[in-house]
Amino acid sequence: MKKTINTSNAPAAIGPYSQAVEANGFLFISGQIPVNPETGKIVEGGITEQTEQVMNNIGAILKEAGYTFNDVVKSTCLLSDMSNFAEMNAVYGKYYPENPPARAAFAVKDLPLGVLIEIETIAAK
Predict the structure, then answer these.
(1) Which of 22, 50, 107, 121 could covalently link to 34 via disulfide, CB atoms 3.0 to 4.6 Å apart?
(2) Residue 125: Cβ-neighbour burial (10 angstroms; 0-12, 13-18, 19+)
(3) Distances in Å between the alpha carbon of 107 and those of 48, 78, 79, 80, 118?
(4) Domains held by the chain: number
(5) Neighbour-count burial of 12, counting CB atoms closer than 10 A to its CB (0-12 exposed, 13-18 middle, 19+ buried)
(6) Residues near 61 by Cβ (< 8 Å), separated by ≥ 6?
(7) Mean pLDDT for back-to-back runs of 10 residues, the chain (125 residues)
(8) Contact 47, 116 (CB under 8 A)
(9) In whole angstroms, what is the distance from residue 38 CA to residue 10 CA?
């Protein structure tokens, strides 16, 4: 059974996709970018601030669906530049102090709205 997850505490989808979909005990969270859901704007600052906002957006979706960061099993981190990896990793690591999920991280040519980071997430119960 497939269930669409939506919360006003994370940015609304800007295309034909859902914030998240739950199916068969898995939660698939669409790539989150550093948009503040209250303002609809990209947060100011660099990779640290942008990663923090992305993780807050992921947390809001996890909570809406009844999951926590402890349930995350896989993340994919898309960076605009690999020189931002260490700073992104420092923020990301705060959310997974023990038993972190599997992860891939790589640089891409461009990200939506010119942001520095996008992270997609899979959680399981």
Answers:
(1) 50
(2) exposed
(3) 16, 6, 5, 5, 10
(4) 1
(5) exposed
(6) 5, 7, 9, 10, 19, 20, 27, 29, 32
(7) 94 91 97 96 97 98 98 98 97 96 96 96 97
(8) yes
(9) 8
Query: How many other CB atoms are found less than 10 A from the CB of residue 23?
Result: 10
- The range of the structural domain enclosing residue 52 comes to 2-124
Which regions of the chain does DSSP assign to beta strands (E)? 2-5, 20-23, 26-32, 35-36, 41-42, 72-79, 102-107, 117-124
DSSP 67: -
125 within 8 A of 71, measured Cβ to Cβ: yes
Contact 79, 108 (CB under 8 A): yes
**Strand, coil or helix: 119:** strand
In three-state secondary structure terms, 20 is strand
Give Cβ neighbours of residue 17 (< 8 Å, ≥ 6 apart). Answer: 30
pLDDT reported for residue 50: 98
pLDDT of residue 14: 81
pLDDT at res. 1:
83
